[in-house]
């Protein structure tokens, strides 16, 4: 990348599993560079969801490099996920017609719950002998007819606290949109509420988001939360991250017995999503 930024720029890898992100620094200027990011990034920048996009450049080999302002700041702590700011930004994302229209123009189709269950069947079969995993798969199968396929919005898909950036200027962003999809908003919200928010605060959090807590929405959240846990369990198994795998299995067990306190009486938060 040095040949189009200039040799005076210091470019270092920014980490991550894809190896496509870099930091660039020169003369007090700092940029966050990404190779072959989606055109969706420009719309996210325009909506104020991610740090401002500065430019995009196409290289001779066809790669596209995007540059964003590097924001000094920090990721949110797990207990900060309960805040109204997180709820309002999540609500803004899910209600954004420009974001939804852009994903549709990019060829994205709704990710149906039946598709998610098919992915679980194809990936998690090695672990079916574990009783909690087998019970969760049966739950998804039996409850699938009660999960509607009528409400679809732009979903981030991985809203754990590591992907929320609070800048030194007190601006809140949701970053790392490589897994963006069109799906049921309960997918994102289930991760947030079951993973981070005390049960007695759910109604207030959802009020800030823009909806009321109902039994039907609870069931949708639980379905997607269980499905995502199963996929994360398998991902950690594939990476030989057995401590994290067992931690999520324990959280999955708690989730499966969660109905006994449907709308909560001081129930403690889960920690399945605090990766």
From TrEMBL:
This is Phosphotransferase. Residues 14-222 form the Aminoglycoside phosphotransferase domain. The lineage of its organism: Bacteria, Bacillati, Bacillota, Bacilli, Bacillales. Keywords: Transferase. GO terms for molecular function: transferase activity.
């Amino acid at each position: 990348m040095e040949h189009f930024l200039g040799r005076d720029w210091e470019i270092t890898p920014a980490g991550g599993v894809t190896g496509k992100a870099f930091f660039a620094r020169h003369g007090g200027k700092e940029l966050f560079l990404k190779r072959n990011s989606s055109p969706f990034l420009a719309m996210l920048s325009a909506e104020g969801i991610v740090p401002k996009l500065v430019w995009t450049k196409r290289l001779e080999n066809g790669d596209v490099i995007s540059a964003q302002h590097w924001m000094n700041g920090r990721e949110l702590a797990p207990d900060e996920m309960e805040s109204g700011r997180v709820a309002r930004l999540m609500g803004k994302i899910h209600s954004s017609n420009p974001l939804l229209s852009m994903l549709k123009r990019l060829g994205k189709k709704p990710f149906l719950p039946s598709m998610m269950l098919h992915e679980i069947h194809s990936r998690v079969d090695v672990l079916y002998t574990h009783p909690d995993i087998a019970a969760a798969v049966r739950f998804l199968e039996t409850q699938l007819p009660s999960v509607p396929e009528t409400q679809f919005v732009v979903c981030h898909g991985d809203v754990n606290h590591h992907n929320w950036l609070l800048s030194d200027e007190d601006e809140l962003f949701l970053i790392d949109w490589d897994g963006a999809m069109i799906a049921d908003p309960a997918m994102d919200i289930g991760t947030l509420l079951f993973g981070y928010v005390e049960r007695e605060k759910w109604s207030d959090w959802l009020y800030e988001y823009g909806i009321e807590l109902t039994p039907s929405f609870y069931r949708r959240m639980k379905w997607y939360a269980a499905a995502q846990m199963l996929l994360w369990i398998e991902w950690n198994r594939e990476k030989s991250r057995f401590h994290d795998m067992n931690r999520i299995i324990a959280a999955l067990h708690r989730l499966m017995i969660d109905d006994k306190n449907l709308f909560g009486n001081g129930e403690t938060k889960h920690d399945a999503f605090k990766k």
